[in-house]
C-alpha cells in the first residue's frame, strides 16, 4: 500500500491520477502538515475515486494542543467526515510527550467508522513499544512512523521490530524520507508492506508522477 502525502492541490491531483493507493491531504509542508482547506478537499472528493485521508492538525510545532485548538480539531473531524473523508490522520501528546489517551479517544469516537492513523508524533514518545500498545488499545488502524529516528532508513531496525511484533494488530506505515532509491531496501529489511512518501524530488515543490510510479513498482 502506497500513501502519498500531499501538501497542496497540485500534488494531490498528481497522486490521485497516478498509481498511489491513497493520499494523505494536508497543508503547510514547512510545518510538517496541518489541516487542509475544506473546499479543496471537496474538490478532490468530487473528481477522484481514490481514498483521501485528511490530516487534522491546527498548528505546527509540538503535538500538545490548547482547549481552543482541540475544539478546532473536533470541529474539523465533524466537517470532513460529513464531506466524505476516507480516513483521518492525527496524534495528540501530553506535555511529557506521551500519548494523550483521553483526547485521542474523543477524536476516534467522533470519527466513528472512519479509520484513524496516528501520525509521526508517535516517534516523539519515549517508549515506542509501550506507545504502540496504547494505540492498539485506543483503536487506531494505522501508525505512521520512522522507527523513532529522523528518517526510516535510520529507524529501520526498530521498524522491523514493530512490524514483527505488532503488524497483525495495527498497520505500520513506514514514512520519513521514503524514496524510490531506498524503498526496496526498506521493504526487504523490515518486511513492511505499507509505505508513505511525499514523492517530492530534491529541489522540487510538487509530487512527481515518475517517482510515484517507481515507488509503487518497487514496493509491490
UniProtKB/TrEMBL annotation:
The organism of origin for this protein: Chryseobacterium suipulveris
Could you read off the lineage of the organism from its UniProt record? Answer: Bacteria, Pseudomonadati, Bacteroidota, Flavobacteriia, Flavobacteriales
UniProt family annotation: Belongs to the CutC family.
Which keywords does the record carry?
Cytoplasm
**Record localization:** Cytoplasm
Family matches, as Pfam families: CutC
By its UniProt entry, which HAMAP family does this protein fall under? CutC (MF_00795)
The record's PANTHER family line, in alphabetical order, gives: COPPER HOMEOSTASIS PROTEIN CUTC (PTHR12598), COPPER HOMEOSTASIS PROTEIN CUTC HOMOLOG (PTHR12598:SF0)
Chief location category = cytoplasm
InterPro entries from the xrefs? CutC-like, CutC-like_dom_sf
What name is this protein filed under? PF03932 family protein CutC
